[in-house]
Input
Amino acid sequence: MNALRQTSPWAVAGKYLALALYVAFALFPLYWLAKIAVTPDKLIFSEGTALVPSRFTFENFQTVLLQTDFVAYFRNSLIVSLGTAAITTMIAAAAGYAFSRFDFRGKRLIIALMLITQMFPLLMIIAPIYKIVATLGLLNSLTSLIIVYTAFNIPFATFLMQSFFDGIPKDLEEAGMIDGCTRFEALRKIVLPLTLPGLGATLGFIFTAAWSELLFALMLINSNDAMTFPVGLLTFVSKFSVDWGQMMAAGVLALVPSCLFFIFIQRYLVQGLTTGAVKG
Amino acid sequence: MARIELNNIAKSYGSVEVLRDVNLTIEDGEFIVLVGPSGCGKSTLLRMIAGLEPITGGEFQVDGRRMNEVPPRDRDMAMVFQSYALYPHMDVARNMGFSLEIRKAQKEERSRKIADAARTLGLSSLTERLPRALSGGQRQRVAMGRAIVRDPSAFLFDEPLSNLDAALRVEMRLEIARLHQRLNATMIYVTHDQVEALTLADRIVVLNAGDIQQVGTPLDLYERPSNKFVAQFIGSPTMNILGIDQAENGVKLKDGTLLKVGSEQERRRAHELGVRPEHLDVVAEDAAHMKGVAELVEHLGSDTNIHANVPGVGPVLVRQHGHYPLRAGEAVNIAVDLEKSHLFGVEGQRL
Output
């Protein structure tokens, strides 16, 4: 707008400095995780706070992968997280579509109930949940985790999906219905392709939430076979010592699927897929 | 090709009535324009015809067959939306051919029809583009192409030009008129723009607050509006409405001027006088019915609009053909074309 007003180089430098500080602050824990993972055990305490260790080793990774149950935890977590993300997203997409497009009796009540469920601290309901799961005979099973995670994530995921559906003009479906689609065909051929970013975001969010969940997993799972990854991490803590190196190595490995998952879905997260639908 | 009949059509949302007792027969090949101010129910009526909005009362027939419960996909009508509603993830060709794709038409037939429509609308070079890479006018054409490709029994237009700029609007208006001449299909067109209504329609349906005010040819509505609402809605600039008092052998303007209009019977119920700006003339002082002062003069080149204030009568708009050399603040003497003025009763009905 104002050609006379030039951005001062100091302001630019200040902006980048602030950004750099923020990035460093946010990424430091991750760096520290990776650093400890590659530091030989003997140096962890002696070199303590040095930013870069004097020697590197992949021994911790080797131990974690070959001599612990890490691979089993990892597989369990993958099953639970993928299962939760898939089921939750499917239900949330259907519910979100209904909230976005239809008016039905009790709609406000259901929305209110879903909001209320989000207000309680999880600690309060752990005991009843344990009781229910125990009665059903599902303790120590991955199924119980998938059910519980799905139940807890559906409200948020539904609101998320509803907002994505709200962003798709109703005209598009109506045009499709006039062009010869049934409502379901219009949903499948027109709305669904446009909702892929929304589905991607929801999948990613739920996957991450389930991947890192500890509280319920700790309560509902005792047997080593069914342990998920966050619970498994605790096995590196023994009564007298903590195996920091191995724990951190396991942590680094745990980041891999999350990263892969987001790389996979990030192309669906690209916004602006609906531009051009309605007037420009 | 279709003859469309609306019998006592009504629409209400709960206890809110938005359309009442709509009766209308649309002949095969007719171009009908539904016009009215926003909120009058014209778009709702169109959506009811399309099948997007349930009909809550009355019967809707196409070629004698009841259609109230038929879903939109089986009504064989194409609709052009105000927002265009192009499928953003499909290129122009697929957008236009989507209805054929759904109906599982042969691939050759599909591409032939798409190519035909694209050629008619000047879109041949754009068929592989996505909607987001098109200008507003081009998107509008694609939306029309989508309708043409289907060769439907009726075309429905929901304010299709209101998102375009003025020049493009005129161009697309001509294009729609040409399309109607060429296809000779039944078309129902919703707009709030009376110029579109007057230029395109075989017959215009004027709606206000859920009621049909009048149905007629453009000239009918202009020359014989059935009430004050239609009189003021059709025609630009708007008709002057002047308060009157009854008198022996005419009506008196509020400043006491006697005007000899109407029959005795009409005058007895007359409440207001309506006269279009183009039926007022600036004349010499001795021929004038009203003497006022020009407050604002708009020189449009083809016309001159004189906003005058007449003491006792109020503001009066006079339209003179061509350039009229008058400046604000000058005195202006106005004559009324008594033949072309209208008397309105207390309830606004034309007498």
User: Anything to note?
Assistant: Residues 70-101 of chain A form the longest helix (32 residues). The mean pLDDT of chain A is 86. Chain A has two domains: 9-57, 69-269.
